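Problem: given the chain below (567 residues), write out its structure.
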Amino acid sequence: MTEHFEDASEAGAELVFLPLGGCGEIGMNLNAYGYGPAHDRRWILIDIGVTFGGIDTPGIDLITPDPAFFETKGDCIDAIFLTHAHEDHIGALALIWPRLKTKAPIYATAFTAHLAKSKLIERGLKSVDITEIALGGEVQAGPFGVRYITLTHSIPEPNALALTTPLGTILHTGDWKIDPEPQLGDETDSAALRALGDEGVLAMVCDSTNVFVEGESGSEGTVRKALTDLVKTLKGRVAITTFASNVARVATVIEAARQAGRSVCLVGRSMHKITDAAIATGIIGALPDLIDEESAGSLPDENILFLCTGSQGEARAALGRISRDDHRHISLSKGDTVIFSSRVIPGNEKEIFDMQNRLADRGVRIITERMTEAPIHVSGHPARDELRQMYNWVRPKIAVPVHGERRHIVEHANFAKSLQVGEAVQPRNGDLIRLAPGAAKVIDQVPHGRMYLDGKRLVPAESEGIRERRAIASYGYASVSVAIDEDGDLIDGPIIAVKGLSEPDGRSADESLIDIDDAAEEALLGMKKRTRLNDDQVERALVRSVRKACERTFGRKPVIDVSILRV
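Solution.
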């Protein structure tokens, strides 16, 4: 096998990197590496993640990379590797897998495999298996030798992947930081990284999230002490919200509660799901006795601590429901405290602040990471000192920044050059980048984009239905119905109905539609009978007249739907 690929390298083989997600945004990661000549390239995929919808994507909760480039290349994919279990790295696996039409094995360490498998089962893909690989384990996937290297992050079992090929070695970092006290799991395997650097690394494909942050990201050990000290000072009921995937933080909160004489109640589906996975895979031992939601109200206020999902203001998460006082079992009021052991993810500011305002309006004290001298939250991504240390260990010839918006990637490339890295590329999603042989460069652009989970279907981001939904959300909707006989005579209508437009007193538009009706009728009566026999011309005339009338009356141009009944 090795000789075959060495021969291939002499026959025009290339080593290429292709990001389809995660370059130009933080999240939605999908990375691919290819080896071989352009007409006969073998591939591996690393991570298949999601990002989340917002106010600009009405009705859309999950967004995935567009896998179109690989939908006809399933037989060329030798393996799929998952670096860790965050949603932006595994959340799209079950959605995209059917489109790949591949039999490639999926590899992950135990904790990641447990959560990824549950996602496959939820989507009805029970027959799709995931091969568990040990920490530090190795596997051969076509021309790629792949070795897992233990890192630290904000979730159990984060891994870098060392990819060896006949044209050089690549280190794909995944998400990481350097935490000397991670609380759960092993510390960063710096010895393996140094050894890799000593052997020679062609390229490092590296996390860019905190490239603008000076210093270090901070340790979970300092958070444990800070939260423990803080909880001891509080009276009344206490709720702490954090990312459920940060099992070390969950363990910290439980320990802080124990030292303060409080029992812990887990609140939120994800909190239970992640802790169950951590126990099942041996990440943590059996938890101390926890209080269920139904029983929590029977404890004195000073003896209960709620560990909640919803740190990003998600409406359906536990803390969101508590803030609206519509949680079935739990309420907070004056004298209680909510601690946000989390950061504000850009784009979630409005939802988070609205939730905090609702809590404050109920008399609940809010404590965030910016309000305490000691850190009650630290990032899971490397700041500049940690990036500098990683480059010193690995010493790659080429820097390939990923996992960042455009500003992060450009800054990371410049930072790497300042650390004496010979070459640095600035990838965009869809860039096919040749890493070897020769200088690193973009050699092609492949189809890429976003897919929206619209109900049960993945649809292109710019699909007609999504565009219409955005337009309706912004401008409203009007329907025009008319009945015309075979001679072109107007039998009934036009009948106007609107949605999303209001009267000055707040009622749905009613009296204001009189002018719209008149405009539509005038447009029809102004047409010759034979012209009324042409559906297209009738529709164009009605759309034009109703849109102009709506703009005069409401100051808006709604989406207009015309129905023509021939009688």
